[in-house]
Design goal:
With 231 residues, the protein is mostly beta strands. It folds into 2 domains: 101 residues, no CATH class; 88 residues. The protein has 1 helix and 16 strands. The strands form 4 sheets. Strands 1, 2, 3, 4 and 5 form a 5-stranded antiparallel beta sheet that branches. A 4-stranded antiparallel beta sheet has the order 6-7-8-9, with no helix packed on it. Strand 14 and strand 15 form a beta hairpin. The longest helix has 29 residues.
C-alpha cells in the first residue's frame, strides 16, 4: 500500500511539473511586459486615445485631490510623454473619441464640484495641442459610451451621474459640423459602464453594463436608420 501511495505521489508530481512547464512555455510565447517612462501626472478614471500618428492622448481622470484638467501625449518613439494642454473643465469618467480629421472629442464626465455630472464637450486639436469648447449634450452624463459612426458623427449612449442614482436610457448623436447633438432614441434598459461597439453595417452594439448594484447580460443594437413608418 505504501509503495502504491509513493508511486501515486510521484506520478502526480510529474504530471504537475509537465503542466507547469507547458503553461510557462505558453506564457513566454504570448508576450511580455516591460516598464516604460511614467506619465507626468498620476491619474485614474482617465481616457487614453490613439492618434493617427501613433501617439496616445491621455486626458483628465482623477488623483488623490480629485478630477484633473491636465492632458499629455505619450510618444511610443521616445517612450515619454509631453504636456498637451488643459481642459476647460476638470473631469473623470468621461469619454474621448477620435474624429476623422485627427481631433479628439471629449464629452461629459464628472467634475470636482460635488462630483457634478457634466454635459459639456471639448475638442482637442493636435495642431495646437489645446482644447476648445464644442457645445453641450442635451443631457449631462458620465460612465457613458461615445462611439464614432461611419459618417463622422458620434453616438453617445446611457451613463449616469454616479453608481447609485440617475441611471440614463437616453442616447444622442453629436455632429462635428455643427458641434451640437440631437436625440437618438432610448435604450430599452437604462445602463452605465457598458460597451458600445460599431458594427460593419453602421449599427452599434450596446452590451452589458449595470446599475451600480447589478450587472446586466442584456444587449441592444442601435440602428442609424429611422424605423419604417406604418400607414
Amino acid at each position: 500500500m505504501r509503495r502504491l501511495m509513493v508511486a501515486f505521489v510521484a506520478l502526480a508530481f510529474l504530471l504537475g511539473s509537465g503542466t507547469t512547464l507547458a503553461a510557462g512555455e505558453d506564457t513566454a510565447a504570448t508576450g511580455t511586459f516591460t516598464t516604460t517612462a511614467s506619465l507626468a501626472e498620476a491619474r485614474q478614471n482617465h481616457t487614453a486615445t490613439l492618434l493617427p500618428d501613433g501617439r496616445v492622448l491621455v486626458v483628465g481622470g482623477k488623483d488623490v485631490d480629485g478630477p484633473l484638467a491636465s492632458a499629455e501625449v505619450w510618444d511610443p518613439a521616445t517612450a515619454s510623454s509631453s504636456p498637451a494642454g488643459s481642459l476647460a473643465e476638470a473631469r473623470m469618467a468621461h469619454t474621448a473619441t477620435p474624429l476623422p480629421d485627427g481631433r479628439v472629442l471629449v464629452i461629459g464626465g464628472v467634475d470636482g464640484v460635488a462630483l457634478r455630472r457634466l454635459a459639456s464637450a471639448e475638442v482637442w486639436d493636435p495642431d495646437t495641442a489645446s482644447f476648445s469648447p464644442a457645445g453641450s449634450l442635451a443631457e449631462a452624463r458620465s460612465y457613458h459610451t461615445a462611439t464614432p459612426l461611419p459618417d463622422g458623427r458620434v453616438l453617445v449612449v446611457g451613463g449616469s451621474g454616479s453608481y447609485l442614482e440617475d441611471l440614463l436610457a437616453s442616447a444622442e448623436v453629436w455632429d462635428p459640423t455643427t458641434a451640437s447633438s440631437s436625440p437618438a432614441g432610448s435604450l430599452a434598459e437604462a445602463r452605465m459602464v457598458h460597451t458600445a461597439t460599431p458594427l460593419p453595417d453602421g449599427r452599434v452594439l450596446v452590451v452589458g453594463g449595470g446599475d451600480g448594484f447589478v450587472a446586466f447580460a442584456s444587449a441592444e443594437v442601435w440602428d442609424p436608420k429611422p424605423p419604417p413608418t406604418t400607414e
